[in-house]
Design brief:
Blueprint: E1 3-8, H1 12-15, E2 45-50, H2 72-79, E3 87-91, H3 103-109, E4 112-116, H4 123-129, E5 133-135, E6 138-140, E7 145-151, E8 158-159, H5 166-171, E9 175-185, H6 186-192, E10 198-204, H7 210-214, E11 223-230, H8 234-242, E12 245-251, E13 254-259, H9 266-269, E14 273-275, E15 278-280, H10 282-285, H11 294-298
Parallel strand pairs: 1-5, 3-4, 3-10, 4-5, 6-9, 10-11
Antiparallel strand pairs: 1-2, 7-8, 7-9, 11-13, 12-13, 14-15
């Protein structure tokens, strides 16, 4: 994947002439020179920008290997009966392989999808090792400029003001970079990325900005079969419930929500157990058959 999809006002011919992004270069919040200082909503476009990058491989990126931290990828495959050629949205994608919720689905089940990642540190890695469209933006309720922070500990970067990890990271000297970036509404992104109206899986983990991102999701035109979302706040849970979604279970720190019209694999659903009254999906993805609620306390 040598294209990266970015917000731009520039003519496409000019965009193609920009230099490639490299991961060992000094930190640059706008490595491709594409982010304008101000944007007008009616002119904003998500354009494909060509950057040649060599193919990249990782030792763990082999068929049959699951990558998600808590088994989200294995759970989606189980709930949807090993569906082939599905469609995912990974928001935010972060590293292309390590703890990726979507890589195994893409590689082993032939899924297509969007890897949405605002942090330029991961763009080259994603383009060099994934088949998904790499969308280099932040998603929010409206189009505007926000401050994005990149932390040395990968996976915890995000929008300043909603990311709960920023303050302790500052105290610990873990901030790698801080820059201004543009947000785009979810509905605009889906339209310009030619996403299908039926999305099989949404992995939503944007470090406190989940409600902000989903505020612009077009529920009237698009549906999601299953989504995993990290610690959703009450407004997002209410929004999902109002649009015919229900919480199925918890998996690690994620909640698993399904659309009421989704047909789930019966044997997978039957393995969900209740721990202290709360449904847990860990038995669906557990390697050991003897999983019990006490495993959570040993965590």
């Amino acid at each position: 994947m040598n294209f990266v999809y970015m917000l731009s006002h520039m003519p496409l011919a000019m965009a193609h002439s920009q230099p490639a992004v490299t991961d060992d270069a000094p930190f640059d919040p706008d490595p491709a020179g594409m982010e304008p200082p101000a944007m007008k909503g009616n002119l904003t476009r998500i354009r494909p920008i060509w950057h040649a990058v060599p193919a990249m491989s990782f030792a763990e990126d082999v068929p049959g290997h699951w990558h998600a931290k808590s088994g989200q990828d294995r759970l989606i495959a189980a709930l949807l009966g090993g569906k082939q050629r599905g469609y995912f949205i990974d928001l935010a994608a972060n590293h292309p392989i390590f703890v990726s919720n979507s890589r195994a689905l893409e590689r082993d089940y032939g899924w297509d999808g969007l890897c949405i990642e605002a942090n330029p540190r991961y763009w080259t890695l994603l383009r060099a090792s994934r088949a998904c469209k790499v969308i280099a933006v932040a998603v929010a309720d409206t189009e505007r400029t926000v401050t994005f922070v990149d932390q040395r500990k990968g996976g915890f970067g995000g929008i300043v003001g909603v990311n709960p990890h920023v303050r302790p990271a500052r105290k610990q000297g873990q901030i790698r970079g801080e820059f201004q970036t543009q947000t785009v509404a979810f509905q605009t992104l889906l339209a310009q990325a030619d996403a299908p109206r039926s999305i099989d899986y949404l992995s939503l983990d944007v470090e406190g900005a989940e409600t902000l991102a989903m505020a612009s999701f077009p529920f009237s035109s698009h549906s999601i079969a299953v989504l995993t979302v990290e610690e959703p706040k009450v407004p997002l849970k209410q929004q999902l419930a109002n649009h015919d979604y229900r919480q199925l279970c918890r998996l690690g720190s994620d909640q698993v929500w399904v659309h009421n019209g989704t047909s789930l694999q019966a044997d997978a659903v039957q393995r969900i157990v209740h721990c202290s009254g709360a449904p847990r999906c860990e038995p669906v993805v557990a390697q050991e058959a003897s999983w019990s609620c006490s495993t959570l306390s040993r965590g």
